Amino acid sequence: MSPTPTRVTAVDTYDIRFPTSRELDGSDAMNPDPDYSAAYVVLRTDADDGLEGHGFTFTIGRGNDVQVAAINALRHHVVGRRVDELCADPGTVNRDLIGDSQLRWLGPEKGVMHMAIGAVVNAVWDLAAKRARKPLWQLLTDATPEWLVSQVDFRYIADALTPEEAVGLLRAGREGATGREATLRERGFPGYTTSPGWLGYSDEKLTRLARQAVADGFTQIKLKVGADLADDIRRCRTARGAIGPGIRMAIDANQRWNVGEAVEWTRALAEFDPYWVEEPTSPDDVLGHAAIRTGVAPVKVATGEHVQNRIVFKQLLQAGAIDILQIDAARVGGVNENLAILLLAAKFAVPVCPHAGGVGLCELVQHLSMFDYVALSGTTENRVIEYVDHLHQHFIDPVVMRAGHYTAPTAPGFSATMRPESIAEFTYPGGSFWAADLASDKGAAA
C-alpha cells in the first residue's frame, strides 16, 4: 500500500503593519506617511517535515485590509493540492490563480489580485526551495533552462521573446556559471542604499546617513525628490557634498510629475550629477517615459517597482523607454512572472536594478538578482540591488550586508519567514503592539 501523499492543509493570512510613519521612514513625495506592511501568507501541510511556505506582498498601511482579503479569495486553489506536485511545478498554481476567470475580471493580471497571486506563488517557491534544501537563488541556478522556461507564461510577450529564445539565453547564461557562483559566495552582490534619502529627513540626518553609507562601502545612494524644487536643490547639494564626486547618486520622484515637468525638474538637478531619475511619471505611461529619457539624457531613466506585469515591461523595453529596469519581488505575480521579466531584460540588454524599499523586499529580491547574475545575464556591471536598513530583524534569515554587498543566502527557502514573535506583536489590530496602541488612542480621546 503506497503512502498517502502529503497535501496543503491551510493557507493562513496575517495583516502585519509596522509604525514606520512615526519616524518618517519611507517618506517620499507621493507617500508622506507610509506604515510599512505585509499581507502575509503561510502554506501549511500535513507532511512530517514541518516545512511551511511563507510569502507576502508589500503595502503601506490600510491597503492591507484589501490585500489580505484578496489572498483569502485564492485559498481554494491551493488547499488540498499535493505538495510534491506543487513544488515540482510551481507554474501550475501560477496558471490556475491567473486563470480564475471571476477574479481575473478584476485585473486582468494587475492590481490587488495580481499582488495577492504573487504572495501565494512566492510562498509556493519558498516551500519548494526548503524541500530542496537550497536557497531559492541556487534552486533557480541549478535548474535546467528547459524547466525554467516551462515556468514562464509567454502569453502576450511572445512577440518580443519566444520560448526558444528564452532557452537560448539561459543556455548561454550557464557558460561560466560555476565561477560566477564562487564569486558570488565570496564577494556578494552589489547594493545601493536609500536609507539616507527619505524626504522627511532633516539635512543633518541626510548628511550623517550619507557619510555613513560611504563608510559602509556603498558606491551609490538615492534621494527622494519631487515635492519642492528648491528643497530638492538644497538636499541634492547637501548629499553631493557629503559623499563627494566619486559616489553615484540617484534621484526618485515616485511618480510625482507630468512628462514635461519631469524633464524640467531633472534638468534643474543635473548639476549634481544624478545617475538615474526613478519613476519620473506614471508607471503605466510607456511613451511618457520614452520622451523623458530623450529629454533628460545623459541622466538615465529607471522604473519598475509599480509596473504591474510583464506586458508593460515588454512595452517599456520595446519603446526604448528605460535605461534601468527595476523589478519588484512582490508587485507582479511572483517568481514565475519575474523570470519572464528578467528574460525580457536580458533579451533587450537592459540592466536590472531591483526595488527593495519595503518590509522584506530586500530579503526576497536578492535571490532573483543572484540567479540573474549566475545563470542569465552573467554580470553585475551597472547592476545594484536597493538596500533599506529597516525591519530586517523581524525575519528568521535577514539580509547580511558586507562592504556594500548583499551576502549570498545559504539557508533553504526564499528568506521570507518572519519571526513568530514579530507576527504576534505587529499583526493588526490584535497584535500586542497595535492592541496597546489603539487602547492608548482611545484613552487619550476619552
TrEMBL record:
The keyword Protein biosynthesis does not apply. Its EC number is 4.2.1.68. InterPro entries: Enolase-like_C_sf, Enolase-like_N, Enolase_C-like, L-fuconate_dehydratase, Mandelate_racemase_C, Mandelate_racemase_N_dom, RHMD-like. It comes from the Bacteria. It catalyses: L-fuconate = 2-dehydro-3-deoxy-L-fuconate + H2O. Pfam families: MR_MLE_C, MR_MLE_N. Residues 203-299 form the Mandelate racemase/muconate lactonizing enzyme C-terminal domain. It is an enzyme of class 4 (lyase). Keywords: Lyase, Magnesium, Metal-binding. SMART domains: MR_MLE. One of its GO terms (biological process) is carbohydrate catabolic process. Signal peptide: none annotated. CDD domains: rTSbeta_L-fuconate_dehydratase. Its cofactor is Mg(2+). The keyword Transmembrane helix does not apply. One of its GO terms (molecular function) is magnesium ion binding. This is L-fuconate dehydratase.
